[in-house]
Design brief:
mainly beta; 2 domains; 4-stranded antiparallel beta sheet; 2 helices; 12 strands; 29% strand; elongated
Length: 199
């Protein structure tokens, strides 16, 4: 009986010299830079540290997925059937439009792709959409109002006239109630109700 020995040392050395592209790491959603306004959400993210260091392994595209939910615990819900996809994003942000107003949560996640493959998805983030939103405009505000990006302040008594007839006119011009929803950067809303019982 004949015995043969095969030497694969040259092939082994060749395989060890091969350079395989790494799979991109999961990006991180930059929650403070995300904006929820009206029925749109702009999602921003950062590539994971170390990705894109070489020309061959650089990230070429991102895939964003989102789904609507009424539960906060849906971040870890199983199954991919209900995810809606926005593929082939070249930058590090994308806008999801046409959402329902006043949705309790929209869950988003993103992954990076290079020439080799797509990486893992980022940790999912839940974002609420506002019932409606507006922005305070300091340039057109009344002189007695101090307007900042998310608040309006004013003196409780204001500059009231000392004459009884003018005081009566001022009281008649005060609206019964003012209410507005202010969209804050951290995906929350604040109801602003001024105290008008200061006559």
């Amino acid at each position: 009986m004949s015995q043969f020995t095969v030497d694969f040392s040259a092939e082994r050395a060749g395989l060890q010299r091969l350079h395989f592209l790494p799979v991109p790491k999961a990006p991180e959603i930059d929650a403070p830079s995300c904006v929820a306004r009206d029925n749109n959400i702009t999602v921003a993210w950062r590539p994971a540290g170390g990705d894109g260091d070489t020309d061959d392994g650089r990230i070429e595209r991102y895939d964003l997925e989102y789904r609507k939910s009424n539960r906060e615990d849906s971040l870890r819900a199983a199954g991919d059937a209900c995810w809606e996809k926005i593929p082939d994003i070249e930058g590090t942000q994308a806008t999801i439009s046409g959402l329902k107003f006043d949705s309790r949560f929209v869950v988003v996640r993103v992954r990076a792709r290079n020439k080799a493959a797509a990486g893992d998805f980022s940790e999912p983030v839940a974002v609420p959409t506002a019932a409606f939103s507006f922005v305070f405009d300091g340039s057109s505000a009344h002189a007695e109002l101090r307007v900042q990006s998310d608040t309006v302040t004013w003196a409780a008594g204001g500059q009231r006239s000392r004459r009884p007839a003018e005081r009566q006119r001022e009281q008649e011009q005060v609206p019964l109630s003012i209410m507005g929803v202010v969209v804050l950067p951290a995906f929350s809303s604040q109801v602003v109700e001024p105290d008008l019982n200061c006559h």
